[in-house]
Amino acid sequence: MQKLYRININHFEDPLKNERLLDLVGIRRREKVIRYRMPDDRKRSLGAGIIIRKILDENGLTESCLRYSDNEKPVVDGLFFNVSHAGDYVVGVLSDCEVGCDIEKNANAPLEVAEHYFYHSELAYIKAVEDKDKAFFTLWTLKESYMKMTGRGMSLPLDSFEVVPTADGFVLGKSSERPCFFETMEFDGYIFSVSSERAFSLHNPLEIVFDDIYV
């Protein structure tokens, strides 16, 4: 089971100009939102909080159930979810097993990152294809989603595991961590990837428009 969530941050105002928006999230998330200096960063943080609250509401839970890992990842015992944001979008995924997700805008890839930090076979894949930006961000989002799924985040070195392209998609190659299944998709110039402990398929993301959440 995978349930997807998506918010376009252009659907709401800067929460410092409309403080009513801060009532849509809990105290800890409000404090995090207002610490950001840039309006779009505040919107992205707010969007993440809205998705997390919706996931909790759908499962009969409240934000008092949340705890935070050493890297500030919000977690709930017995509930598997993850959120990510980039540019105009905040995305989330709810699952029945360990899961991670990542989103990036497909533009101007920092290919030097792949040169220094990707697995050698991944770098070879990027060099071999015509659309190197897409190849980089597909691998990047898959790798980051896997790092988040394991719970280690950026403490897991990028070159310590391998994402392998196949005719049917991407699979996990060499890794000292747990196995996983990958799915990736594109929308509106963004690449969105999910890693899960069990096989799954991605359908079109659920578009969560602000007014559809709290009417």
Task: Give a structural overview.
By secondary structure, this protein is α+β, with helices and mostly antiparallel strands. It is 31% helix and 27% strand. It contains 6 helices and 10 strands, in the order E-H-H-E-E-E-E-E-H-H-H-E-E-E-E-H. Helix 1 runs antiparallel to helix 2 and helix 4 (120-128) runs antiparallel to helix 5 (132-149). The longest helix is centred in the N-terminal third of the chain and has 20 residues, at 39-58. 37% of the residues are buried.
Short summary of the structure?
With 215 residues, the chain is of the alpha+beta class.
List the helices and strands and how they pair.
Blueprint lengths: L1 E7 L18 H9 L3 H20 L8 E2 L5 E2 L4 E7 L2 E7 L3 E7 L5 H7 L2 H9 L3 H18 L11 E6 L2 E7 L5 E7 L2 E7 L13 H4 L2
The proportion of residues forming helix, as a percent range, comes to 25-40%
In one word, what is the shape? globular
Q: Indicate the radius of gyration in whole angstroms.
A: 17 Å
Q: How does the helix and strand content classify structurally? A: alpha+beta
Through-space gap between termini: 27 Å
Strand order, sheet with most strands: 1-5-4
Number of strands: 10
Poorly predicted ranges: 211-215
